[in-house]
Amino acid sequence: MSEMRKKQADFAFREQxxxxxxxxxxxxEIGEMISLVLENGALSFGAGEPSADMFPKEQIRDAMxxxxxxxxxxxxxxxxxxxxxxxxxxxxxxxxxxMLPAWADAxxxxxxxGGGEAMSLVxxxxxxxxxxxxxxxxxxxxxLLTFRKQGAVCVxxxxxxxxxxxxxxxRVVSSRKARFLYTIPxxxxxxxRTTPLDRRLKxxxxxxxxxxxxxxxxxxxxxxxxxxxxxxxxxxxGDDKRVIHCSxxxxxxxxxxxxxxxxxxxxxxxxxxxxxxSSGLGRPLxxxxxIWHYLSEVDFAGRVEALRAEYRGRRGVMLDSIEKHLTPLGxxxxxxxxGFFIWGNMPAGMSARKFAHYAVKEEKIGIxxxxxxxxxxxxxSGDGSFRMSYAKVSSDSIDExxxxxxxxxxxxxxx
Length: 415
Ligand SMILES: Cc1ncc(COP(=O)(O)O)c(C=O)c1O
Fold this sequence. Notes:
This protein has helices at residues 3-9, 19-23, 29-39, 57-69, 84-96, 114-126, 141-149, 166-175, 197-208, 233-236, 269-278, 285-297, 300-325, 352-363, 395-414; strands at residues 43-44, 109-112, 132-136, 153-157, 159-160, 163-164, 178-183, 213-217, 243-248, 260-263, 332-333, 341-345, 365-366, 368-369, 385-389. By secondary structure, the protein is α/β, with parallel strands linked by helices. It folds into two domains: 3-55 and 302-414, Aspartate Aminotransferase, domain 1, CATH 3.90.1150.10; 76-297, 3-Layer(aba) Sandwich (Aspartate Aminotransferase, domain 2), CATH 3.40.640. The strands form four sheets. The protein has a seven-stranded mixed β-sheet with strand order 2-10-9-8-7-3-4, sandwiched between helices. The chain has a four-stranded antiparallel β-sheet with strand order 11-12-15-14. A two-stranded parallel ribbon has the order 1-13. β8, α10 (233-236) and β9 (243-248) form a beta-alpha-beta unit. α4 packs across α12 (285-297). The longest helix is centred in the last third of the chain and has 26 residues, at 300-325. The mean pLDDT is 94. It binds pyridoxal-5'-phosphate. Pyridoxal-5'-phosphate binds at residues 48, 114-116, 140, 184, 189, 217, 219, 248, 250, 255, 260.
């Protein structure tokens, strides 16, 4: 092979890779922890995913068979926002659950490739390189990556057990020009926190006097274990159409279907339509049809109740196990009212990052250090905390994992 040919065979895209890809995509700390869990054959409290035994496999298989029996799923679908029947189902569900404002209907709903793509489209629509995006402290890592990919500068707003602190938000909003505030109001990933109603109203009040939009990410809405979930920001905002609501079927059906949605105001419909066309036309109609067939037949309230009962049970086992193993060691954790996550704080001065690496290697138990959930430059703020999830671990494994974590902690402290 000639030298030139050899060089071409090794083509490394050095001159071609975009600045966005090269500079804005750091190594994900969650990815690093997942690799360490696999390498060490460890038990993991790290995965923030639904439990595979909760997927309605038989019903989805039947619904997909029906979908593929429909002749229209094989060609291009000419509605960029997705299957109208599914969007109508979502609009009906959200209205019944007091989550949809009067101005919105199925025409304002776009079906996306999971909630993740909803956030991508929102970011493409609203962020220019260098624009400011406000986030909770801590917040969901993947959204930080999505914002950063588009060139956003993310700044976190100080938050407490009830989410964003309104006075802190007011202070930042009055001094800096931000495009939007990103919030996960229910059973937040990673902190498990829920923003109470009065705080949601205060936050909307603060934004009402500004040019800042609000992006609400609510994939855990139905996974409430201590009573009914609160109504959405988009509904609470009423005629103030600054809120975009994003959600997902990942937690209530299965993440592998890659289906979610966004509710957007009329002012953004044409923009989203253009963005959708330029990023691969539509999303698979067959999947949307299958989901719609499933939802048309399932007892949705019963399905949600079954999910709540199962995850509520796992939450209880993990909380009891924490009390037995971690609380006596001075590790403080919260009690989430739903979702998948518990947030922990190490005793003062201790690095959760160093501890997480030690625990996965020496005791084969994975947790995610808090540093993973802060914008770049702010990572150190999370080094005293960590995230654990009970969603994907069986009750037996929870106690075993907690025993390992406590043992790792004792040795780590005594070194
Ligand atoms: C807060 C939050 N938003 C969005 C998502 C995206 O989920 P999906 O793209 O599977 O709908 C997740 C998944 O873990 C999440 O925790």
